[in-house]
Amino acid sequence: MTAGTAQAGDPHRERRPETAQLASSSIDVDVWRGVADGRFVRYRVPREASQTVLDVVTWIQRNLDPTLAYRYACRVGMCGSCAMTVNGVARWTCRTHVDRVAAGARLELRPLSNLPVIRDLVCDMRGFFDKWAAARGRLVPTATRNDPMARVLPASRERRAADAAIECIGCGVCHASCDIVAWRPDYLGPAALNRAWTLVNDVRDGGNRARLAAVAGDAGCHACHSQASCTERCPKHLAPTASIAGLKRAVSRALLKGEL
Amino acid sequence: MSLVRGAAGAAAGQRVDFDRSRARTDATLWLLQRASAFVLAVCVVVHLATIFYAVRSGLTAAAIVARIHASIAWPAFYAVFVVAAAVHAPIGLRAIAAEWMGFQGRRADLAAVVVGVALLALGLRAIWGLAA
Amino acid sequence: MIRQGPLQRFRSHGDRPAGWWAFIVHRISGVALALFLPVHFWALGRALEGEAALEGFLRWTGNPAVKVAEWGLVVLLAAHLTGGLRVLALEFLPWRNWQKSLAAVAAGVSLLVAVFFLLAVR
Description:
By secondary structure, chain A is an alpha+beta fold. Chain A has helices at 2-7, 11-21, 53-63, 98-101, 126-134, 157-165, 173-177, 179-183, 189-200, 208-215, 229-233, 240-256; strands at residues 26-33, 39-46, 83-86, 89-92, 106-110, 117-119, 122-123. Chain A folds into two domains: 20-123, Ubiquitin-like (UB roll) (Roll); 126-256, Fumarate Reductase Iron-sulfur Protein, Chain B, domain 2, CATH 1.10.1060.10. The interface between B and C is large, with 38 and 41 residues.
């Protein structure tokens, strides 16, 4: 007891009991290397307590192969740049503990699906963001700087609908998880449509006539079959499925009024 | 690398602009499919109940014909059912053709219309045969 | 994009969410029903050739194998109905978290109909 108290200040001493509880002292990690015709390379990485998948990738790059390409910035789930396919599922690697995903001390890391691979774990995100532009995901202002600030009541229906979808940080997890994007490469996808839905509900915006026509159709909101993989996988717990359903209703209203 | 990027742009399917008439066609078809779905939901429940009742009392041609002759409501019901199905099914098949077979555009739209008209003709002919 | 052969379109995202299964059942049952519809209409159209022709066809459906197929069609119809109601609820009702359980509800109701008809068919 006294011995334990004496050692409590030593961080290494404190960590040891947790480390001892780990199922194994190392983990085998298969990492995608190369471009689309690349291959998996296996690395053995020491296990740590509270280790994230991003920690694993970083350890490989710093200790085994400095040429490994991957993206990250904030490490705390704010920037949305570290998404990869972890054991078959698109995830933020910075917020994914190895404990939660590594069945049998194995990890398989691939770049995100549905996007072209640049190298290793890095995807070309241009197509993804081009779709945001194609979905008219930009505010079309109706006022100038000389006008007074718009008053948007927090309790209004439009504001609440926009609020429910606004927290997207563009990580691409939903896009990579969507079967329809895989089947129809021209499909705008859940993230771009979710963004369009926030603007459809933005009372300051004046671009809805063009926006609704841009998101309508079989390469737009009507392609969604409500599989809801996006909603299941979204790290921010948003529901793009619900946003896309909102667009379908908005487009239908415009169609019936002859405004599409 | 540049080759990959070039292919990447094409695969990403950039839509610089949209086609308003295409958007109208697709949105109209979607709405028609959902509208027919609401009608079909009611029809299918009635149909399942009828099948259930019919198989319990033994399925015979005489029983079917007698039921349909009993009231004009039955042929009318089946006519609505057939029209809704003839609208609903081709639109669904069109989506599958586009997503799984790469068959889309005006030719796919035309094929859907042909399937719809054929279903309508076959279905109405069957009702006529039973009711006349 | 990393290609993984002809079955790429069915590639796994790990465990499939319930909504994916609801979708695939809805799609397969829809195709099956679309293929069955013309046959169904043709069979009923035999009545045009007189009640006896239809009766002859119905006797053929007394065949146990055909009976099993008929039961399968009823189950497909029920599955397509409940899956379709799930989609309509997702698309036309305001979003609530309980809608994530709709796939399970659809499966449950279809199963009930399946058992119901299994008991009814003689």
